C-alpha cells in the first residue's frame, strides 16, 4: 500500500505542536515543551512521540511541513548575525532616519528600535541609478572587491546589499552579489531587489537587512533540523510555512528566511479559515492564543486578509511605526494580547497588568512545577476552574494548583483581593485587552467585527474565547477539534505557493499594457518553474488616488483581459468606498505595483466526527463566571466522546488533550459532522 502520511510541526514560544495525517485524516497529535536552546531538539522528540503513538514507520512519511517563530524571536531578541550593509554613497543612514514618523507625537523622549546594522557596518559604494532606472554612475567592481576584503577582516557573517532605485535597475545589486560570492565564498549575500521589487528606500533596506541578519541563524537551525529528521529515518521533503500561508522548499527558506517571520501564526489563520468554511462560516475572526501571545486575523470568503507590510520588534507593543518594518506579503495578523505564559503584575499606579513578559517554556507558569514563581494567565485559568490539573496535555503534565495559589497570593494581596478574585482580575484584563485590540483591528479595515464568527485556536484560545466574544458582541463561536495544535494542522491544509511583485508606477490612463503583461508573464513563469504542479494564478495590483501615500490591493483574477483597465478602476473605487465611505471627485487613479501569486494544488484533508457519544459527560466542577462574579457549577465533557449532533449546554467545559473549551451561561453548543463545536450565545 502506498504511504501518504504527512506531518505538520509548529514551534511556539512555549510549546512545539505536531499533527500527523494519514489518508487525509488526523491519526495523532503531539504537544511538547519547546527547547529554547535548540528548537530542533523539541521537534525531533515530538516526531518520535507521534510516530510511536500512531505506529507509523518513519519511511511512511511523505511530507513534513514546518513553521516557527524563530525568525521573529531572533529579530526581537537581537540574536542574529554580525551583518554588513552595502549601499549607495550618501544613503548609509536610511536605516536610522526611518520614515520620520513619530508614533507618539507628544513623547519628547520617543524611543525607537536600533537598526539591526550599526552605523560602523553600513558601508557605501559610488554607484547611482535615477528614479526612472537610468544609470547615472555605473558600479565599479573594484569598489566592491575592496569592501569584500575589509569585510573578511571584520569577520562579517552576512551581507545585505541595498542600492538606490534597485527595483528599477537591479543589475548593480546582482553584480555586487556575484563579486562578493567570488571574494567571500560561503558567506550569505542578500540583495534588496530579490526581496522587495518596490520603491521605498527605507523599508526595502530594512527588509533586506533583516533577512541578512537572520540568515546564518536559520541556515544552522534548518541544517540541524534536517539532520535530526533524517536521523529518525524520515526521507520525505521538508516544506516550510511562509507568512502568506503558502509553502516553500528548505532551499528557499535558507535564502529568504524572513518570509517565515509569521509562519506559525499564519498557519493558525489558515486553519481557522479551513474550519470556518467546513462549518459554513466564510467570514470569521481567527483568534489564536498560545503560550506567549494572542493574535487575531479577519477572514472573508474563506480567505485571510493579506497585508503588504509587517512590523516586528516594536518598542511600544501596540504602536504602529515603533518597530522594524518588513515589506513582505503576510497574512494580516495583529498581536492583540498576552498568552498563557504571560506574567501578571501590579503597575506603579496599583493596577493589574499582564505581559508582555512571558514565563515561556522555562521555567513556565508556576503550576508547571519548574520553579516558576510569578503568576501567569495559565495559573489564573487553573484557579478559575477552566483547566483540569490532572488532564493537562492529556495528563502528561500534572498542574500544581497549590503553586498557582502561592503565585497569585502576593499579586492579590497587593490589590487587596482574595486569590479567586485576583485570578479573575488577570482573566478580565487579558480578555478586555484582546477584545479592544480586535475591535480596532476590524475598524481600521472598514469591517464590523459583529458580522464575524469567532474561531478559537491555540492552547489558550478556547479557554478565553467565550469571554472575548461576549465583549465583542459576537453571537457564534467555533471551537475546532484539536484546537491546541491548530497551527500545525493548518500547515497540512495549505498549498505550496509563491508571491511575486514588480513595481511599475503609472497613471491608469497611461499604463503600458504590453509591458505589464510581459512582467506578469515573467512572474507567472518563475512560479511555474518553482512548483511541480500549478493549480492557480492570481493577479492583483496596488492602486491609489494620485497624491496618496498608501494603496489598496485590487484582485484582477487569473489573467488580464481587454477590459482590465475599466475592471481595475471599478474594483478600486468600490474597495475605496467600502473603507472610507466616498471617493474624491476629479482625482486621477494610479497604479504602483503589480503582484502575482502562483499556487499548487491543495492537499486532501478529511475531518469526520467519529465519536459515539458514550461516556461523554465526565462530571461536574466549579468554574468562575464573570457574569455572576462567583463560582458556579458546570458540566465537564470529554471532547473525544462527543459525536456529531451532540449538544453541550453552558455553563460547561469541554476537555481535550491540548486545550479546554469554556462555554458560559446561556451558551448552546452543537458538534457538527466535522467535529467542530459550534456555540451560539444568547
Describe this structure in words.
By secondary structure, this protein is α+β, with helices and mostly antiparallel strands. 31% of the residues lie in helices and 28% in strands. The strands form nine sheets. Strands 13, 14, 15, 20, 23, 24, 31, 34 and 35 form a nine-stranded mixed beta sheet that branches. Strands 3-2-1-4-11-12 form a six-stranded mixed beta sheet, with helices on both faces. It has a four-stranded parallel beta sheet with strand order 6-5-9-10, sandwiched between helices. A hairpin with a 2-residue loop joins strand 2 and strand 3. The longest helix has 31 residues. The chain is globular.
Task: Give the helices and strands, then pairings.
Blueprint: E1 5-11, E2 15-22, E3 25-33, H1 39-54, E4 61-68, H2 70-77, E5 83-88, H3 94-97, E6 122-125, E7 128-129, E8 135-137, H4 141-153, E9 158-162, H5 171-183, E10 189-191, H6 192-195, H7 201-231, E11 238-241, E12 247-249, H8 250-255, H9 263-278, E13 284-289, E14 293-300, E15 303-304, E16 306-307, E17 310-312, E18 324-326, E19 330-331, E20 333-338, E21 342-346, E22 352-358, H10 377-383, H11 401-415, H12 419-444, E23 453-457, H13 461-472, E24 476-479, H14 486-491, E25 497-507, H15 513-530, E26 536-545, E27 552-557, H16 564-580, E28 589-599, E29 617-625, E30 630-638, E31 647-649, E32 652-655, E33 660-663, E34 668-671, E35 677-680
Helix pairs in contact: 1-7, 2-7, 4-5, 10-11, 10-12, 11-12, 12-13
Amino acid at each position: 500500500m502506498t504511504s501518504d502520511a504527512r506531518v505538520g510541526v509548529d514551534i511556539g514560544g512555549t510549546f512545539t505542536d505536531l499533527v500527523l495525517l494519514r489518508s487525509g485524516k488526523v491519526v495523532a497529535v503531539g504537544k511538547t515543551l519547546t527547547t529554547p536552546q535548540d528548537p530542533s531538539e523539541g521537534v525531533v522528540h515530538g516526531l518520535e512521540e507521534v510516530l510511536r503513538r500512531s505506529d507509523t514507520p518513519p519511511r511512511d512519511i511523505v511530507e513534513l511541513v514546518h513553521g516557527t517563530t524563530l525568525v521573529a524571536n531572533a529579530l526581537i531578541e537581537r540574536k542574529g548575525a554580525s551583518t554588513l550593509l552595502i549601499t549607495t554613497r550618501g544613503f548609509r543612514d536610511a536605516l536610522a532616519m526611518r520614515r520620520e514618523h513619530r508614533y507618539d507625537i507628544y513623547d519628547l523622549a520617543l524611543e525607537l528600535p536600533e537598526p539591526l546594522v550599526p552605523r560602523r557596518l553600513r558601508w557605501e559604494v559610488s554607484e547611482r541609478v535615477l528614479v526612472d532606472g537610468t544609470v547615472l554612475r555605473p558600479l565599479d567592481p573594484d569598489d566592491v572587491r575592496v569592501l569584500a576584503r575589509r569585510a573578511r577582516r571584520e569577520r562579517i557573517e552576512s551581507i545585505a546589499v541595498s542600492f538606490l532605485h534597485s527595483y528599477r535597475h537591479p543589475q548593480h545589486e546582482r553584480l555586487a552579489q556575484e563579486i562578493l560570492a567570488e571574494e567571500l565564498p560561503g558567506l550569505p549575500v542578500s540583495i534588496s531587489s530579490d526581496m522587495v521589487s518596490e520603491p521605498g528606500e527605507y523599508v526595502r533596506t530594512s527588509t533586506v537587512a533583516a533577512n541578512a541578519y537572520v540568515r546564518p541563524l536559520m541556515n544552522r537551525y534548518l541544517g540541524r533540523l534536517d539532520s535530526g529528521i533524517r536521523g529518525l529515518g524520515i526521507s520525505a521533503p521538508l516544506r516550510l510555512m511562509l507568512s502568506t500561508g503558502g509553502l516553500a522548499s528548505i532551499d528557499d527558506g535558507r535564502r529568504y528566511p524572513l518570509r517565515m517571520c509569521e509562519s506559525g501564526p499564519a498557519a493558525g489563520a489558515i486553519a481557522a479559515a479551513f474550519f470556518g468554511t467546513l462549518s459554513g462560516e466564510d467570514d470569521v475572526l481567527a483568534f489564536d492564543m498560545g503560550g506567549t501571545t494572542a493574535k487575531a486575523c479577519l477572514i472573508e470568503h474563506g480567505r485571510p486578509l493579506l497585508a503588504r507590510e509587517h512590523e516586528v520588534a516594536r518598542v511600544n507593543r501596540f504602536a504602529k511605526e515603533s518597530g522594524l518594518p518588513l515589506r513582505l506579503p503576510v497574512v494580516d495578523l495583529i498581536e492583540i494580547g498576552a498568552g498563557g505564559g504571560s506574567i501578571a503584575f501590579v503597575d506603579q499606579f496599583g493596577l493589574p497588568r499582564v505581559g508582555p513578559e512571558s514565563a515561556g517554556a522555562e521555567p513556565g507558569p508556576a503550576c508547571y512545577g519548574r520553579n516558576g514563581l510569578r503568576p501567569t494567565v495559565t495559573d489564573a485559568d487553573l484557579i478559575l476552574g477552566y483547566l483540569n490539573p490532572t488532564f493537562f496535555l492529556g495528563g502528561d503534565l500534572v498542574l500544581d494548583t497549590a503553586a498557582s495559589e502561592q503565585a497569585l497570593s502576593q499579586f492579590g494581596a497587593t490589590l487587596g483581593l482574595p486569590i479567586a478574585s485576583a485570578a479573575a482580575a488577570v482573566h478580565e484584563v487579558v480578555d478586555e485587552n484582546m477584545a479592544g485590540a480586535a475591535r480596532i483591528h476590524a475598524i481600521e479595515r472598514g469591517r464590523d467585527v459583529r458580522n464575524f464568527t469567532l474561531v478559537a485556536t491555540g492552547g489558550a484560545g478556547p479557554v478565553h474565547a467565550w469571554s472575548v466574544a461576549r465583549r465583542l458582541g459576537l453571537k457564534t463561536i467555533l471551537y475546532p477539534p484539536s484546537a491546541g495544535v491548530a497551527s500545525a494542522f493548518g500547515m497540512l491544509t495549505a498549498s505550496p505557493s509563491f508571491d511575486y511583485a514588480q513595481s511599475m508606477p503609472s497613471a491608469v490612463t497611461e499604463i503600458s499594457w504590453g509591458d505589464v503583461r510581459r512582467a506578469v508573464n515573467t512572474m507567472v513563469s518563475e512560479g511555474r518553474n518553482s512548483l511541480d504542479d500549478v493549480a492557480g494564478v492570481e493577479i492583483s495590483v496596488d492602486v491609489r488616488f494620485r497624491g496618496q501615500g498608501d494603496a489598496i490591493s485590487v484582485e484582477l483574477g487569473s489573467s488580464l483581459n481587454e477590459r482590465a483597465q475599466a475592471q481595475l478602476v471599478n474594483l478600486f473605487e468600490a474597495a475605496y468606498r467600502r473603507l472610507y465611505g466616498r471617493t474624491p471627485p476629479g482625482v486621477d487613479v494610479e497604479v504602483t505595483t503589480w503582484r502575482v501569486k502562483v499556487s499548487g494544488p491543495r492537499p486532501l484533508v478529511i475531518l469526520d466526527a467519529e465519536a459515539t457519544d458514550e461516556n461523554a459527560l465526565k462530571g461536574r466542577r466549579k468554574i468562575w463566571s464573570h457574569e455572576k462574579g462567583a463560582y458556579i457549577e458546570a458540566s465537564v465533557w470529554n471532547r473525544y466522546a462527543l459525536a456529531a449532533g451532540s449538544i453541550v449546554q453552558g455553563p460547561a467545559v469541554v476537555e481535550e488533550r491540548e486545550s479546554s473549551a469554556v462555554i458560559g451561561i446561556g451558551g448552546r453548543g452543537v458538534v457538527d459532522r466535522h467535529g467542530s463545536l459550534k456555540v451560539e450565545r444568547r
